[in-house]
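Hi F.,

I've been meaning to write this up properly since the lab meeting, where we talked about keeping a consistent format for the predictions we share between groups. The idea is simple: the sequence comes first, exactly as it goes in, then the structure tokens exactly as they come out, then a line or two of notes. No screenshots and no reformatting. I'm using this chain as the first example so we have something concrete to point to.
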Amino acid sequence: MKHLPVAIAQLNFTVGDVGRNVDKMLAACNKARTELACKVVVFPELAVTGYPPEDLLFRSDFLDRADRGLARLLVGAGDICVVVGHPFREDGKLYNAASVIESGQVRARYFKQKLPNYGVFDEKRYFSPGTDTLVIDIDGFTVGLTVCEDVWYQRPVADCVAAGAEVILNLNASPFDVHKAREREEQVVVGRSREVAVPIVYVNLVGGQDELVFDGGSFACDATGQVVHRSAFFSEDLARIDIHQGDLCSNRELAPLPGHEESVYEALQIGLRDYVTKNGFDGVVLGLSGGIDSALTLAVAADALGPDKVQAVLMPSRYTRDMSLADAKAQAQVLGVTYQVIPIESLVEAYRTQLEPLFRGLPADTTEENLQARIRGNLLMAISNKTKTGCLVLTTGNKSEMAVGYATLYGDMAGGFAVIKDVPKTLVYQLARYRNRSSVVIPERVITRPPSAELAEDQADTDSLPPYEVLDPILEDFIEHDCSIEEIAAKGFEVQTVSRVSQMVLRNEYKRRQAPPGVRITRRAFGRDRRYPITSGFS
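Output, unedited:
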């Protein structure tokens, strides 16, 4: 009986770092050959360059470097058969390609047919679509090759099978969102394998790249649609599967599909970790207020980087409650994070004194509140600048706040990375409880007391916003589903509330354009996914 051992190489690559990416692939080739006794190793989509390269693809020197990287892999891989994704130029066009290389030769090359051009994807900006089906004999098996989006459509897979494919290899760079793992496995690939009665091997990228997180979770299903292998989520993995004539099996148990809160928390960790390490920062600093958002951000940072790489700064004003300061200190101590206390009241007074001639006779309002936030932002940026080892400022705002503009430009929005930027406030609380189930690192009082910016006397978020259990579903419908005010109100919300929220979202686009990047965890995050004009007459 025919038998083909295949290595699934689920690796974390860095966009543009072709040399190190190829180093990783060569190491994986060697391990797949010597330790796993595999005949074939399959890497993710655009593995040579990392994904997504974006406008680097317009640079000829970048593409030259990718070509040299592929040539190096060609020589260094030896006699193991390698299936690898990379950009490829031909006849004045650029393709999202996958090559089959073995013993120093390119045996075949496939060009991705279905180019996604929605959400976070812009592939039609760079690539031309392929038109030809590829099937190739690998050690006695007729193997069909597809790339990522191809498997979401019936035709590319069906054409491979019509050409004689006994198994389909699908190379992917599929970004994480809270629904994606189950969707691509249960709703797409499993159904596709049942349609054509052929096994499919789905190899996915893992790691963080700017706002995007790739969650891994590579898998293989047999000709009946039964998943027989699933790699780990959110970590690198090199796993062997065995293809037999008319069948596919694995030597490993299936990694479990992570739950909702687990997957988001893991995504936040890997997104932050890779952003910090791949950009050469040695650590992070953040303002710790004693509130839920900064508490969750601190927990994620300490878990992702280690407490020795995290610095917390407590900056109390006259409006900071004693319990907030106590809770912030307690959390930093439990996590083993270094913290400093810098009272800002004298700085606030200095600002007020200097501005008094201009503000004389005018009532106090959000101007004075925002001064406090901006002073804190300045202090954090100063600490970052002074840290010779490179310290990235983390902002702590959540998606609900960013949506309605409940954040201070050049204040609490000042920083280099926004960890929970795409996390709605209600999910922030869920994640805090989830983290505390492993060990209590966020004081219970932080989770249970009403949220407040503490920029004014007896201030509460509900002074300015609807309750978050009302606000968040409205925001989800308006932002992620493009629902009208009437459609949202029909679900039982007050028209006035929905209208007010929608106007807040539209009016604060200018703020979001100036916000730092942050981990994408929903289907429609601000930035890549949702592109609204700042100047607009739409209401």
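Notes:
Residues 366-386 form the longest helix (21 residues).
The CA atoms of residues 133 and 529 lie 31 Å apart.

If this format works for you, I'll send the rest the same way.

G.
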